[in-house]
């Protein structure tokens, strides 16, 4: 069963090409959130070795978007974020250094192509134009349905398990809080996202989601504290990068 994640003001569905800085910030915030949430899922279910954790989290985050987003919102989300891929020669780095989040979780060219391929393979007809815009070659497209099916087989049972955990009352809802440094719109979007996720699935152990100042441009999952942290400095960094892309 698909769930439609409710996004405050539906800003995530506003494409970056319209030069909406808030849309860029929110889409990339949510992309980072789903990536580190995937790390939390992998940790709480003890699913992956550390050697594969970044790739596994990236694949699981794509499957989360595929499963829980409406098609148009999923496509716009992918467009705004390019799946978290940031090239070191990108124009945004003419005005700022790579963020701490990118240094820890930035997607390589190879993994970026894999993520685009898997996303395309989940709905080739409706995602063809998007895949072209993201640089997926016709040759690579031939394998993408198979690659999606492989990712689906790997991760759909995990998402099913999280839904069953919730349905049987054995789970723990994500707990969200924001400090006074958080932008009210950004905090409300993430609050709604967490609320919608809690309606769909739950982890077997508590995980907090905190938006706060950290003195770092980062989004991270802190396993020792069972906490996902969205640093307000990272959101400010995203706003700067959005403006740089359109200067």
From TrEMBL:
<dbReference type="InterPro" id="IPR025644">
    <property type="entry name" value="DUF4344"/>
</dbReference>
<dbReference type="Pfam" id="PF14247">
    <property type="entry name" value="DUF4344"/>
</dbReference>
<protein>
    <submittedName>
        <fullName>Uncharacterized protein</fullName>
    </submittedName>
</protein>
């Amino acid at each position: 069963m698909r769930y439609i994640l409710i996004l405050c003001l539906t800003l995530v569905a506003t494409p970056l090409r319209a030069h909406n800085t808030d849309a860029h910030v929110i889409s990339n915030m949510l992309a980072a959130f789903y990536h580190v949430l995937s790390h939390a899922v992998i940790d709480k279910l003890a699913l992956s070795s550390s050697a594969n954790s970044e790739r596994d989290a990236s694949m699981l985050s794509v499957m989360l978007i595929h499963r829980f987003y409406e098609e148009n919102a999923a496509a716009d989300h992918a467009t705004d974020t390019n799946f978290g891929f940031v090239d070191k020669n990108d124009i945004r780095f003419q005005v700022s250094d790579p963020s701490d989040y990118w240094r820890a979780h930035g997607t390589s060219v190879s993994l970026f192509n894999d993520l685009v391929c898997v996303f395309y393979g989940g709905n080739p007809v409706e995602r063809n134009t998007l895949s072209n815009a993201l640089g997926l070659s016709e040759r690579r497209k031939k394998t993408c349905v198979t690659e999606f099916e492989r990712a689906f087989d790997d991760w759909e049972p995990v998402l099913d398990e999280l839904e069953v955990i919730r349905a049987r009352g054995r789970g723990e809802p994500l707990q969200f809080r924001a400090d006074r440094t958080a932008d009210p719109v950004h905090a409300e979007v993430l609050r709604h996202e967490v609320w919608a996720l809690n309606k769909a699935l739950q982890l077997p152990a508590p995980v907090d989601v905190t938006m706060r100042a950290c003195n770092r441009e980062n989004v991270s999952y802190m396993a020792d504290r069972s906490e996902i942290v969205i640093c307000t400095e990272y959101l400010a960094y995203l706003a700067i990068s959005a403006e740089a892309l359109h200067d």
